[in-house]
Design a protein that fits this description.
Length: 254
Amino acid sequence: MRQAEFDGRGSRIRWTESEGEGPALVYVHGLGSMSAVYHAHLAGHPALVGRRQLFVDLPGHGISDRPADFGYTLEDHAGALAAALDAAGVTGAELVAHSMGGAVAIVLADRRPDLVTRLVLTEANLDPNPAPTAGSSGIASYTEEEFVHGGGFPAVLGRVGPLWAATMRLADPLGLHRTAIGLVRGTEPTMRELLMKLPLDRTYLVGGLDDCLPGRAELVGSGVRVVTIADAGHNIMFDNPAAFVREVAGRAAV
């Protein structure tokens, strides 16, 4: 396990990694998740063996610290991720980012183009103020006090189902709530607008079981490669790992 300070006050962002060659693959998890849980089962696939692969947990999640005086905005998370990559000596990485992590990856690519050469975004959040769901918008519907101390956290854990709850219950309630607030608020320009103007290789993966990506034509027109993955929902890496690895590996047959 490796770590780096991210807030100037001693808080650490942590990750595990495998040694290898070529541009580093950096996995970024979604809200209430952990990178190793969602991605490490793919690291030994023949198409990915030999690559350097980093499994980073964002602040407030997994094995990383959870400072109470941290903002947990998308920009804050991107800054912490940059601190990890700088400490790891990574430049020109390929970011494989899921859901909320995709929004963080877009912000990082915009702010630190030296760190990123390629984005593979799995059902990433692109727009602010999403429709109410049990996830980010459901968490953000509570005040911080209600969520952290008033029963909101266990109520959300009961609504998201056992798979998501398995990692969400390990997240810091305060960090989780502030992250959800930041995700619902989004960025200015929006994550979608930032993604469309980024001058790098961009792939956006959509689960085919509920293929309802708004603005698909506009994304494609800006150079984003949009790929629908059959037999998969939001968690494509679990539902169709072979197709997921094919896209992470760079479209090569696996």
